[in-house]
Amino acid sequence: MLTVSGVHTFYGNIEALKGVDIEVGVGEIVTIIGANGAGKSTLLMTICGRPRAARGRIVFEGRDITHMPTFEIVRLGIAQSPEGRRIFPRMTVLENLQMGATVADPSRFADDLERVFTLFPILRQRQNQRGGTLSGGEQQMLAIGRALMARPRLLLLDEPSLGLAPLVVKQIFEVIREINEQQKVTVFLVEQNAFHALKLAHRGYVMQTGRITLAGTGRELLANKEVRAAYLEGGHA
């Protein structure tokens, strides 16, 4: 479904991605783990066209999207739930979800809204409440729900567990599994919580300083001594 080949991305003179190669197959959950500053979020943003890849190619469902405007990329079927949630705090929950649906078929809005409310029942209760008054976990649910309202075939999730209580983290990862298995949405997940991410994912990559350094199935990476030392046993990458 998605192929990233030899992608280099810069912020000014700083090279954030240094020839990244990854693949995401149809129906998979694929995760990238790594330390802060490794380039994980930059990769997701580059896929969406901001920042633009300086070199390399990004292909989605056989179509080169490397230089395509972000709004066209979204219309092709890619949606992102960004790091930090970035909901519209003065808008209500319902209005935030409406914003996510702007590229989708209006005739399916009611069905899509019901799908999000089924995944996140608390959002149904809070639909007339301003987004900025929600708890951190509820805001994360809203960010994921807003992305789903675009009816994506590929969902990009950037640090969905960041700053959340353990019980909420467990709930979020259970929903990600349901989105993939029941709703047949392919998921590309960036996550610092390596244990939960690799346990959930079909395949995973390890990124360090803008480069992919390891790849394998989720189980293989969970069992890898280097990964365990760096990300699962209190070590540092």
Tell me about this structure.
The structure is a single chain. The protein has two domains: 2-77 and 153-232, P-loop containing nucleotide triphosphate hydrolases (Rossmann fold, 3-Layer(aba) Sandwich); 89-151, no CATH class. 38% of the residues lie in helices and 26% in strands. It has ten helices and ten strands. The strands form two sheets. Strands 6-7-8-3-9-10 form a six-stranded mixed β-sheet, sandwiched between helices. It has a four-stranded antiparallel β-sheet with strand order 2-1-4-5, with helices on one face. The two termini are 30 Å apart.
In short:
This protein has 237 residues and is α/β, with parallel strands linked by helices. The protein is built from ten helices and ten strands.
Assign a percent range to the helix content.
25-40%
- What's the number of structural domains? 2
% residues in beta strands: 25-35%
Tally of helical runs: 10
Largest sheet: 6 strands, mixed
- Assign the CATH architecture of the largest domain: 3-Layer(aba) Sandwich
Determine Rg (CA atoms, Å): 17 Å
Question: How does the helix and strand content classify structurally?
Answer: alpha/beta
Task: Look at the structure and name the CATH superfamily of the largest domain.
Answer: P-loop containing nucleotide triphosphate hydrolases
Task: Detail the poorly predicted runs.
Answer: none
The CA-CA distance between the termini, in Å, is 30 Å
Spatial order of the strands in the main sheet? 6-7-8-3-9-10
One letter per element, helices H and strands E, the order comes to: EEEHEEHEHHHHEHEHEEHH
